[in-house]
Amino acid sequence: QRGERLIDAVDRGAREVMMPMLSSILTTCAVFVPLIFINGMAGAMFYDQAMAVTITLLVSYGVAVMLLPVYYHWIYRSQPSFRPTPWLERFSFDGLENGYEKLLKWLFRRRVIVWTIYAVCIVGLVGLFFVVEKERLPKMTYSDTLVSVDWNDRISADENSRRTREMVSSLGDKVEQSTVMAGIQQFVLSHTPETGISEATIYLKFYESDQLAPSKREIEDYIHKNYPSARVSFSSSGNIFDMIFADKEAMLIARLRSTTGRAADPERLQSLILRIREALPELEVESVAMQEDILYVAKPELMALYGVSYSSLLSTLKNALNENVLFTISSGDESLPVVVGDNVPDLEHLLSNTFVRASGTELPVSQFMQQTRTRDLKSIVAGAEGDYYPLNLSPASRDVQSVMRRIKDVVAEDDGFDVSFSGSYFSNRDMVMELVGVLVVALLLLFFILAAQFESMIQPWIILSEIVIDLFFSILVLWVFGQTLNIMSMIGLIVVCGIVINDSILKIDTINILRRGGMELKRSIMTAGRRRLKAIIMTSLTTILAVVPFLARGDMGSDLQYPMSLVIIGGMVVGTLISVLFIPLAYYEIYKPRR
Questions:
Q1: What confidence score (pLDDT) does residue 473 get?
Q2: C-alpha angle with apex 352: 349 to 355, nearest 5 degrees?
Q3: Residues 354, 364: contact at Cβ < 8 Å?
Q4: pTM of the shown model
Q5: What does the alpha-carbon distance between residue 363 and residue 306 come to, in Å, rounded to a whole number?
Q6: What is the phi/psi pair of residue 232, to 5°?
Q7: Average model confidence (pLDDT) across the chain
Q8: Rounded Cα–Cα distance for residues 242 and 138 (Å)
Q9: CB atoms within 10 A of CB 47
Q10: What pLDDT score does 491 carry?
Q11: What would the DSSP string read from start to end of 322-359?
Q12: S-S: 536 plus which of 200, 503, 542, 593, CB 3.0-4.6 Å?
């Protein structure tokens, strides 16, 4: 367009952008390379992607500086000068360039507005980091769920099945498919957690994914209305991704421990949890899972009177319960006992019709035993700090600290218990901080690369200063669209930091070239802006449009990519504006003539 010979234009054009392109490639690689060295889930998910992007970018740079100039020369070799395609001339950027120059001059006269916005973005970035929810993975779209119900009552298997089927029927025709497993399940290779006779596991599949959340609320309301002592929980039905990566911990787990040195008293624990429930009215606090045991105690006086020993009484009961083990079949790490008989009568019939020899005659076992009932915790968990009862809670991450304080206050009123906390809130926070560390390493790499490119310690700060605004608006987009800071969105933030500064590198390199040619500071800024506006807009659009297809949702892969795509698109849109408007002002503030 400036009238140079084709071969000279190809040579000068390639040499002019070769170094800024190399810096752009290296800065993009600099944010992907640290991902290769991350441990855990993030490393497992992004190692291949980081390697592929790094290798592809380096190869593409070789193609851009060696092959594309040759192709350009070959295609236009018959044209004495560059002529645009006639029907595409209507899409000229001339009007946009003129408008851009006017806007830039207006901002130069009102630089205080720009710096005020920059200060607001710094404060806003810090505030949003603490406000936005944090979790390990993005929310997935499911249309099915597993419902676990513990009726917390002494019921038969038939009653369990009846209650469970009535609960499923209450959902109406929204359920496409359901499978009920009520009571004890006897599988050779179990695919579900072990359940007792008063527990049930139900698989529910709905016609639409948006029916899942309201149906869960209906189930909870139904259970609490008809069976107040029952406990209900939900979990994903599971897929290969969930099996490998899913976070199975509750957001917050309050570990309630007895300080008496003995097992926690169930009634006292129940009373404590009721007080915690009153202190946390906004949360669903589960009741204590209890079980009632039937305990048979021998009568030593009668046994001594009739000469019945403990060993003979125990042997008689074992025979009656078919617990005579003939042998054990071992396969790998599993052992299967082979016993005599398979029909076990009810306990009352068993004790009345089972006889033990005593003083030359046979007397029923029931004469030598008395029956009592005890209520105890269905389960406890052993940890490094001792046995504890886990109370699973699901507060929003921003409310966790407040919830922990209120629980500590309630527990402090009872000198029989102590509390500590665990849960995905802490592991998610550690993961986010690890990725923040990766971001810091990436920014340091960016700084050193830019310092080597521009042979300056100041100009890298000009370019990197825009990252504050880009990050603020990227996280703001997440918050507006109801997304969280998770492993995918954090990776998106890291990637944005590397690719969004490419436009600024190109602009500052052009300003430097013009200034070295003797052009005045402000004129060189304006000229570079017009000269590089098309390239900046086109490279930004290609990145944005390439990511747009990943905004679709509705399946596991799309749900994973959605928050990362939001961050990249939001960051690139804002970053393009920052590169063409903010960077020239920052450059001018650094190098403007001093009076």
A1: 92
A2: 125
A3: yes
A4: 0.66
A5: 9
A6: -135, 140
A7: 81
A8: 12
A9: 14
A10: 83
A11: T--EEEEEEETTEEEEEES------HHHHHHS-EEEET
A12: 503
